[in-house]
């Protein structure tokens, strides 16, 4: 198994940190910019895939608006990251666990779900970006 | 957005690991030493900020004594770290999620709360240290 | 405290990611290969230690078979990693938190337990491997 360079592994950790803090604080454009312009987000939690910056931005906006409306703060807690070589030097595959934790105003936190992030990443002039994220309930 | 060097990002990950394992195992001085000598800890979970090594050490001692007394083991589970450039080469800003998980003796674990760590870090001769930690329930 | 090189810290993060995704998806041999051939796994959750590739592989197979049988998907969520120098240049000690989260088919996830991983790692020709893992409920 070929070793993924240190810089690339850490860039993915940073990307995942940025993603969570962006979407959870309502920075929808910042979240969408962690994907390529044609990036795809495929999840069983939502009826159909989202693709492209505009759709991803709208998705993140709806997510945050839903939190505001419900009064429950949701957090994307990401851990257990494994970065693997991709099919070329300019692609990577990464796996991670995502815990969605919600805290209602004045209430106790609750783990809503635990999913697996399975990402295809591509190197761009701005750094690594997600080209396709597949969220699994079951791997 | 300027890239934070790999060494610095990883130093923050290490610092956060050290912090949690120190405070959770009762090593109060070790925990306090992850802050600068004038470091500040500001949290809505506690009535007022703690500042300086002596106060931080006492804070960590009280935390651990509380666990021993209650028979509930508390853990600081840190993840979803994002390290950002600071206002100079010798400062960083870092965000992370903190899950406080408690396990009573012989009982099932419980997620007490999920908070956001928002840190201002400064480079010292001993490595990166927290100058000011602000804990948010809501970002 | 001597600084652990960036490459080595990150190799441990990668190893932990690989371990979790391997055992949770039923890749028992892949999981066992993250230990040295004589690697040991010592946990209070199980009646006796497991040692050596064959026993570790069988352990991981039983783990996954148990999930399939029960219909509850278990995940090893690892975070809060701290990598420390070992007693030589070719050994490391690492601490991490492990959350075992289970999701029954069609049900809500539940945190089963939170343990501390306390690992002795050794450098091999294939990279860092776990020589001895001790799982603690209480440190």
From TrEMBL, chains A, B, C:
<protein>
    <submittedName>
        <fullName>Nuclear transport factor 2 family protein</fullName>
    </submittedName>
</protein>
<dbReference type="InterPro" id="IPR032710">
    <property type="entry name" value="NTF2-like_dom_sf"/>
</dbReference>
<dbReference type="Pfam" id="PF13577">
    <property type="entry name" value="SnoaL_4"/>
</dbReference>
<feature type="domain" description="SnoaL-like">
    <location>
        <begin position="6"/>
        <end position="134"/>
    </location>
</feature>
<dbReference type="InterPro" id="IPR037401">
    <property type="entry name" value="SnoaL-like"/>
</dbReference>
């Amino acid at each position: 198994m070929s070793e993924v360079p240190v810089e690339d592994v850490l860039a993915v950790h940073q990307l995942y940190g940025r993603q969570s803090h962006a979407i959870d604080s309502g920075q929808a454009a910042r979240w969408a910019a962690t994907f390529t312009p044609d990036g795809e987000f495929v999840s069983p939690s939502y009826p159909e895939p989202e693709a492209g910056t505009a759709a991803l931005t709208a998705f993140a906006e709806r997510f945050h608006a839903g939190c505001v409306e419900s009064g429950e703060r949701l957090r994307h807690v990401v851990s257990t990251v494994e970065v693997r070589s991709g099919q070329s030097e300019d692609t990577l595959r990464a796996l991670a666990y995502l815990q969605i934790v919600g805290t209602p105003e004045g209430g106790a936190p609750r783990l809503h779900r635990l999913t697996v992030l399975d990402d295809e990443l591509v190197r761009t002039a701005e750094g690594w970006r997600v080209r396709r994220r597949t969220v699994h309930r079951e791997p």
